[in-house]
Every structure is written in structure tokens, then in C-alpha cells.
């Protein structure tokens, strides 16, 4: 009975978060990932965030020269502190908080919440009246915009079986780089259309972060739906087996987050002898 329940639980997990686990091969696995909604929402959410990050890397120096008329000796030391510091705090802190929030199913605070909150700070940085205010808003905004990295990678990795980890991550990174690289090109084209108005062209950054948050929200919703479907399938396994448990005993089945980092779905069935 235990072996049957275990195998049925594995089948339920496959149905809930399936990315073509059966007969997985390199090409078939990549195609299955491209058809997997959770993987694509997660990857595109990360990609749109990279659009904003790539724009900042390409145009941040030029922005402070043109808009605030600073020379490199003024803005370079500040950017050398603000961007790495924001990246470290956001990246490491986001992963740490996401792990702590996994037990309560609140990983979305990092993937969706922090990303969405970064957009107004980036907008404030671009529209600030002085360079000091711009740098301050940039630090907060960039810190928030980096919090998604660790939980997003974990979400993408959880869409495939363990033996396909390298190919899954490689596809995830490939799509991110392809889409993210369009950011600087887009800003350059926008600036040309706006008569060299780089400040307006760089509004693509907060817009990209809003799109990123929306895609992460779709990924989290997809993951929650898969968890509910798998939990429902596990109930079908647990309820019949409850008849064989001793009176008053608890029969429980727990479904892990499938590598996605959300709270585990737990199904507990209490079986008590019926009164005679």
C-alpha cells in the first residue's frame, strides 16, 4: 500500500508541474520547457527585468552626463558603490528572504512585490531634480529590482527533472540574454525618435520592471495552480488508504514545492473507527 501511494504521489506531481518528464531527452526536454507556462512566465519575467538592468549598465553614465551635467570624476565613484551594493543587498537578501518565506507560500513578495516596487523608485531616479536624489532613489530601486534573481532561478530549475538541470538553466539564461539585450537597442532607438531625449527614452526601465512583475505574478499563479492540482490528486491517494489506518491515526501526504520554493501542500486524512 505504501509503495502504491508513493508511486501515485509521483504521478500526481508529474501531472501538477509536468514539463515532459517521461522519456526526457535533450531536444524533447527543451521543447517541453518552451511549452511549459510556468517556465516561460518565469523566464520572461526575468528577461524583462534584464531589459532594465542592461539599459542601466549601458546608459547610466551617459544619463548623468547629459541630464545632470556631471563629469566622470563625480558620478563614476558613486555608481561604483550604488550598483554593486544594490545588487548584493537585493540579490543575497532576496534569496534569503525567499527561503524564509517559502514555508508560508510568500515567495511572491520577492519575485512580484519587490520587482513592482522597484519601478516607482527607478522612475523617481530618472525624474529627480538633482543628482543626489537620483542616486538615492537608484540605490533603493536597484536593490529591489535584484531581489528576484535567486527565487526566479529556483522556480525555473524546478520545472524540469534533476538530470536536466544544466540544460534547463542554459535555456533560461539564453532567453534572458536574448531579450535583455534588446533593452539598450530599444533605448537608443527611442532616443533617436525623441531628438536625443535620453531621460524620456530611459523610461523604458521602469516600464520593463512593471512588465517583469506582471509576468512573475503569472508564474506564481501557475505554480499555485499546479500545487492545488497535485494536492487534489494526492487526496485521491490518501483517502482510500485511510480505511486501512488504525483507529484515530493520522494518514498524511506532503507535496514538496517542486523546486519552486513555495509552501508545501500538505494533505492530512484522519481515520477513526465508525461507532458500532
Automatic annotation (TrEMBL):
Any one Gene Ontology cellular component term annotated for this protein: membrane
Annotated membrane topology: Multi-pass membrane protein
Subcellular location as annotated: Membrane
Keywords: Membrane, Transmembrane, Transmembrane helix, Transport
Gene3D superfamilies: MFS general substrate transporter like domains (1.20.1250.20)
Residue ranges of the TM segments: 39-63, 75-96
Region annotation Disordered: where it falls in the sequence: 1-21
Record has Chaperone as a keyword: no
Chief place where the protein resides: membrane
Tree of life domain: Eukaryota
InterPro entries in UniProt: MFS_spinster-like, MFS_trans_sf
PANTHER family per UniProt: PROTEIN SPINSTER, SPINSTER
Protein name: Major facilitator superfamily (MFS) profile domain-containing protein
Source organism of this protein record: Chlamydomonas euryale
Amino acid at each position: 500500500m505504501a509503495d502504491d501511494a508513493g508511486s501515485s504521489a509521483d504521478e500526481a506531481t508529474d501531472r501538477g508541474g509536468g514539463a515532459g518528464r517521461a522519456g526526457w531527452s535533450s531536444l524533447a526536454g527543451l521543447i517541453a520547457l518552451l511549452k511549459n507556462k510556468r517556465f516561460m512566465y518565469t523566464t520572461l519575467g526575468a528577461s524583462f527585468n534584464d531589459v532594465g538592468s542592461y539599459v542601466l549598465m549601458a546608459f547610466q553614465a551617459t544619463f548623468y552626463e547629459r541630464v545632470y551635467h556631471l563629469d566622470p570624476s563625480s558620478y563614476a565613484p558613486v555608481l561604483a558603490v550604488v550598483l554593486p551594493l544594490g545588487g548584493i543587498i537585493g540579490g543575497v537578501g532576496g534569496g534569503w528572504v525567499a527561503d524564509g518565506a517559502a514555508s508560508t507560500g510568500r515567495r511572491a513578495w520577492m519575485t512580484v512585490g519587490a520587482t513592482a516596487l522597484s519601478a516607482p523608485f527607478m522612475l523617481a531616479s530618472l525624474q529627480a531634480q538633482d543628482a543626489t536624489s537620483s542616486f538615492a532613489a537608484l540605490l533603493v530601486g536597484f536593490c529591489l529590482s535584484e531581489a528576484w534573481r535567486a527565487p526566479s532561478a529556483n522556480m525555473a530549475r524546478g520545472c524540469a527533472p534533476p538530470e536536466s538541470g544544466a540544460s534547463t538553466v542554459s535555456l533560461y539564461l539564453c532567453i534572458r540574454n536574448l531579450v535583455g539585450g534588446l533593452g539598450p537597442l530599444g533605448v537608443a532607438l527611442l532616443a533617436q525618435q525623441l531628438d536625443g531625449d535620453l531621460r524620456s527614452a530611459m523610461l523604458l526601465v521602469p516600464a520593463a520592471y512593471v512588465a517583469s512583475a506582471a509576468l512573475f505574478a503569472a508564474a506564481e499563479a501557475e505554480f499555485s495552480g499546479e500545487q492545488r492540482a497535485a494536492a487534489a490528486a494526492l487526496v485521491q491517494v490518501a483517502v482510500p488508504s485511510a480505511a486501512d489506518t488504525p483507529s484515530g491515526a493520522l494518514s498524511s501526504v506532503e507535496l514538496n514545492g517542486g523546486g519552486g520554493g513555495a509552501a508545501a501542500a500538505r494533505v492530512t486524512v484522519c481515520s477513526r473507527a465508525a461507532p458500532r
